[in-house]
Amino acid sequence: MRLRTQLVLLQSAIMLVVILGSGIAAAWLQERSLRDAYLDRMIAVAESTAGLPSVVEAFDDPDPSASIQPIAETVREASDVTYVVVTDADGIRYSHPNPDLIGERVSTEPTAAESGEVFVGTQTGTLGTSWRAKVPVFDESGALIGQVSVGILESELQRDWLSTVWILAACLAIAAVVGVVLASWAASLVRRRIYGVEPEEIKSMLETRNATLHGIGDGLVVLDERGGIVLCNDAALRLLGREPGADLAGTPVADVLDAPIDPLLADSGEQQLVLAGERKLVARADQVVVDDRAVGTVLILRDRTELDAALRDLAGAQGMTETLRAQQHEFANTLHTLGGLLELGEADAAMAVIERAGAGGALASLEPATGILELEVAALLLAKRAQAKERGVELVVLPGSTLRPAESAGVAGDWLTVLGNLVDNAMDASGGGRVEVAIDDEEVDGRRVVTITVDDDGPGVLESQRDAIFEIEVSTKSHVAGLARGYGLTLVRRVAERLGGSAHVEPSPIGGARFVARLPVVPSEVRA
To answer: In this structure, are 414 and 520 located in the same domain?
Structure first.
């Protein structure tokens, strides 16, 4: 059954139940009102008749009916009731619409004449079933001498009631027809609002949307017109550092991303680097247009942090490969030299060549960093040294630097993030000069603390900018189109503060700036 048909039938059924219930209640109330009106009239007629002096005095006449019958009939015709019957205390009739029954005992008990109280009820008499009221008659001394019974046939009551109920029924029928028409219109309006899609199609579309939304790797954040979050997929929650299933609905997007959001939302299709905690994300905004009207924005997030880590690992592997290749050539040359000297019989000269080679090859150039036992950090320094050589920068790892292996991959990842950003920043500032790296691994108050110090001989950082330089999008370097600036040092400080450490900048002994990051090692159980 189509949605429109279902809506019409459901609304019509509800409406008909309400109308039917209301109609029954109204008809019942109308019947009660009609009976109450007749009751008031019957009691009033009976009491007024029982109190007439002519009626009371006639009870002492030899033929009471001769006086009472005309009075009773006159009252009956004037009050529009079925009968007005006057009897004595024994129930002998003194008046009746049928004169032949005068003088006979009434067919029902003379209740009022026996009890002296007013009786109201439905009884069946000679004229049929009637709704009646019986009132006692007292003489001047207060003695009970008879009763006056006034009634109206139930058939007349029903006829009067039906004469008003059909109007009510007609009104209810018209209301039902109008209700069905309005239900049909409402169903059509709802169907247009949902673009004519049936419930099963809606279910299928919703399942497909959820599967698509939560299955893709890119983060999707749907925003309303005011920049509030409407919907996030699983990847977006992960990139924003939130728990799976977290509800961010209604949260301003500026509260979860560290970057000026307004330019990004205004310039649809352009990419911008933003931060979410310690993650670098590439964000792109696209307008959502429905019926030629912009109803919101879709923010697409991609993880730049993972890309940077992959590039850093690749650079380390490439640097190691180049170093090993150079080492292979050096050893090949050394072997050729040794072979020639031995053929010439110059054994002493050959021994001198062997002693001079020492540990051998290009790896000897990392001798100052031999205290760095964390392989990932050593590989990163090797890769950065290769990059520095290409850029004409002398990268030196100071003697005495020490670093024990990390307790977990997360700890090493923090060191790589801080060291990589500080070295890159120093090489950019040096501009062909010298960069010095010192790493100290020590115990402070029973806790392991790693201090990374990076010096450069560049222009340095003004004292007024030493705090601001760690803020997002603040940089002393010249801006280049398409190249994001002011994110690396922000990440350095955030990592340090998360670990309970610090990061600051001060003047360097070699003429530029010295960046110092103090990184306490958080135990793996606490980190988890």
So the answer is: yes
The answer to whether residues 281 and 273 touch, using CB atoms and an 8 Å cutoff, is: yes
394 with 479, same domain: the answer is yes
Which range of residues forms the domain containing residue 277?
Answer: 217-303
Q: d(Cα 43, Cα 152) in Å, to the nearest integer?
A: 12
Where are the alpha helices (H) located in 230-346, listed in sequence order? Answer: 234-239, 261-266, 304-343
Tell me whether residue 112 is in a domain. Answer: yes
Distance of alpha carbon 69 from alpha carbon 86, whole angstroms: 8
The candidate with the shortest Cα–Cα distance to 84, out of 53, 57, 106, is 106
Is 321 among the domain residues? Answer: no
Q: Extract the tokens encoding 226.
A: 């005011």
Q: Indicate if the pLDDT at residue 447 is higher than 50.
A: yes
Which two tokens mark 14? 């509800």
Strand partners, 289: 294
pLDDT (average), residues 217-245? 82
- Output DSSP code: residue 521: P
Cβ 295 vs Cβ 289: under 8 Å: yes
Are 384 and 277 in the same domain?
no
Single pTM value for the model: 0.47
CB 121 within 8 A of CB 38: no
Output the six-digit token pair for 401.
Answer: 């630097």
